[in-house]
User: Fold this.
Amino acid sequence: MSTAPKPFPLPVTAVTCLEDRAHVERAVVLDLEAGVQRLRLGPVGALAVDRSLHAELTAPYPATVLDARIVRTWAPRGPQPLAGEDSPLRHRVRALEEERPVLERRRDRLLTRLDLLGRLAADLLREIGEGAGHGETEQARWSGELDRVDEERDTYEEQLRTVTAELAARAEELAEAQRVMALAEEEPAELVGHIELTVEAAQAGPAGLRLTHLTPCALWRPAYRAVLDGGSLTLETDAVVWQRTGEDWSDVPLTLSTARSASAGVPPRLTEDRLTLRDRPAAERRTVEVDFREEEVATLGPVPVLGLPGVDDGGEARVLKAPARVSVRGDGRAHRVPLSAFTAAARDEYACSPELSPLVTQVVRFDNLSGHALLAGPVDLIRKSGFNGRGAMEFTAPGGPVELAFGSRDDVHVVREAEESRDTTGITQRTVVTRTVRLHLSRFSAPGEGDERVVVLRERVPVSEVSAVEVHLRKDACSPAPDVTDAEGIARWDVSLPPGGHRTVTLVYEVSASAKVTGI
Assistant:
């Protein structure tokens, strides 16, 4: 069996990025010899999954892949660069190493001069002592000599302090530069993978090889950019791709899928659920226990989680393709890949739910005209003035309605007041709870504004689930009466506010319960 001496290059030709991994496809044309031979191809990313490796040969003559495996080796450190190709960091280290001996020699000379000046001062003091013992009085000369020695010593001591400080700074900078150079320029040993392929060919000739495998450390998430311009909205769909597989994807067709290959496709285990009957006591038959509870009106979908969420595909695997070839570096950073863009007519309204928040939010509605499903993800909101904030896109089927909130309006202020009264009728002993909600709206207009603004107010009314409790909306006491009240008990008003206008909306409803009801 012949063995190829050098590895054949095996570039990445196509990538399918999944939710938490990537399916990599490689293709190359091999010049095979007749008989059985072993080929070495690569290098490939060392993170490739061995059990997912699949190789296939296509040739006009019989050719078969007998064995395919991934072999990993540690690559040694690369050679040091030549002197003419040194980096600026290496030049700085060399300059610091050359400056240090110069400063050290200067420091030694200053120490020698200070030592000589110290000896000179000692000799001068000894001469003064001996002259004074013999009756000599040369006070002017002695004072001048001492002053000259002290001035020179002060000068050289100041120079020594400067040189010592500079030498310490250079030593610290040199240590930091060497540490940075060790991290930046000295390549550590790297784990590199190669494909060892054993093939059998009936005759010599060219053959095409297609090789696929899975690799971890790659994922993608959808992201959007919504540009609101008057009555139209432009939505751009992007895919944010991260990958650190050990190799770059250069100029490859990219496919994005929401398939979860790691999830096991087994049905849930059935558990026993027993139902038992018991006789209710007489005390329980005479009373009905009720309680107020809040239910969030929501549609089907995954439970939100903290951190980076998974891809919400509506329960069905979705496949999106990049319109052009892309290049994604294996640096672990986020790379945005454009997928699609469309412009649709937009309908906006200024909505407020005072019980939840006093802010008036501009809500924009439009239809999904992208031709594919819009997956859940973040949206960059942009108006004419520029970037406005970031919102969230919910899963939307093709052609379905989309709703985006473009932030709150500061020129409309809403104040909510709630009152409650309780009464019991004498004959039927029914408990009646009357609740009054007042909503005060104010608009602060800039000079020159003359148009009216319609604010959509929503306030909830309790919905009873038992016949013993009745909820009645008193439209005669409401001012004005709600325009619409849906099945979930949400009352809606379309309030028109002129510039600088004020309006008050009043909602009154009654909760009536019989005498056997407790918990109201």
